[in-house]
Amino acid sequence: MTSIPSDQAFAQTLLAWFDQHGRHDLPWQHPATPYRVWVSEIMLQQTQVKTVIPYFERFMRHFPDLNALAGADQDDVLSLWAGLGYYARARNLHACAQQLVNEYGGEFPDSLEAVSALPGIGRSSAAAILSLSRGLPHAILDGNVKRVLARYHAIPGWPGKASVQTTLWKLSEQCTPNARTADFNQAMMDLGASVCRRQPDCPHCPLRTDCKALKTGRPSDYPERKPARVKPHRETRVLMIEQQQAVLLKRRPPNGIWGGLWSLPECPLDSDPQDWARDHLGLLIDVYSKRPPLAHAFTHFTLTLHPILAHYQQGQRLADTDTLWYHPHSEPTVGLPAPIKTLLSQKEPNE
């Protein structure tokens, strides 16, 4: 009897598992249009499915198709993204929609290279969009797939290292079948998310028989963790300047943390808040209390915000389009970073 090639057997085993145990009811699967798959792929970067689902559903209600997203105001896009983090994803999503409308007639191209070149879309995301929505035979390599392949083949090294990533790409391409590619790629992601997790559930894994990491007796050693590094810490003071129950917000620069979102004005810790507000905002304020500091963790550093409450006394009228008076307890219509939203929600309406 002719034996089945190992890569083919891998795919058949995984697809049989997927038919019985895979996720078939995710909101972006019904229908799995390129637009819906694309939005889900961008949201799922660095974010778990259970967190993404309500954001995705709300996003689709506001922007049901690519033309609706392309024609939206960036503030509306950022406001619906607030809380998901990594806000460059939202800005790139908006820019990508506009480019697709202007250059491709509102449709995704079929070329992997063309999709990969769009704002915010890398090789794996492009492959996922084309395979999951159109069934095109492209291999993917997201975090879940890296973990499955690194364990199954016992690949040493951190997957973020270029040489390790090159090896994993080759392995992914070798095992990805031309038929049922969409199901196979979804199966790889599902297996990594539900079974081959950081602490693997090996007894329930369909690939356990030939998994080299399991044979070592230390499957959780693969893939290797990112080399540890102490996160730098930053601190800043934020001014909660109020006027008739409204709070002054200032739009952040397009680049850097919270790029394009609305935040509280930041005053250096070694500056006098009243002098700073006069010199940088053209406002006279009366500082009346401090709030407890609020810590927030980013991927590469931690941040502590020191809030100060102040009354607006007088000053220039805010003609600057990058400043506005915002009512925290009204329906939010602007994109706010999560910690700023937390600070504003803690403020009582008549405080």
What structural class do helix, strand and pairing data support? alpha+beta
The CATH architecture classification of the domain at 22-136 is Orthogonal Bundle
H-E order: HHHHHHHHHHHHEEEEHEEEEH
How would you state the average pLDDT, rounded? 91
Largest sheet, in brief, is: 8 strands, mixed
Alpha plus pi helix count: 14
**Share of β-strand residues:** 5-15%
Please give the number of β-strands: 8
User: What is the radius of gyration computed over CA atoms, rounded to a whole number of angstroms?
Assistant: 24 Å
Helix content range of the residues, please?
A: 40-55%
Instruction: Measure the end-to-end span.
Output: 81 Å
Low-pLDDT runs of 5+ residues are: none
In CATH terms, the superfamily of the domain at 22-136 is Hypothetical protein, domain 2
CATH class of the domain at 22-136: Mainly Alpha
Query: Overall 3D geometry?
Result: elongated
Quote the CATH topology of the domain at 22-136. Endonuclease III, domain 1
Descriptive account of the structure:
The structure is a single chain. The chain is α+β, with helices and mostly antiparallel strands. Among the domains are: 115 residues, Endonuclease III, domain 1 (Orthogonal Bundle), CATH 1.10.340; 113 residues, Alpha-Beta Complex (Nucleoside Triphosphate Pyrophosphohydrolase). Strands 1, 2, 3, 4, 5, 6, 7 and 8 form an 8-stranded mixed beta sheet that branches. α2 packs across α3 and α9 packs across α10.
Can you lay out the helices and strands and say which pair or pack?
Elements: H1 6-21, H2 34-44, H3 49-62, H4 66-70, H5 74-81, H6 88-104, H7 112-116, H8 123-134, H9 143-152, H10 162-175, H11 181-194, H12 212-216, E1 233-243, E2 246-251, E3 262-263, E4 266-267, H13 273-281, E5 283-290, E6 294-297, E7 302-315, E8 323-326, H14 338-346
Parallel strand pairs: 1-7
Antiparallel strand pairs: 1-2, 1-4, 2-3, 2-8, 5-7, 6-7
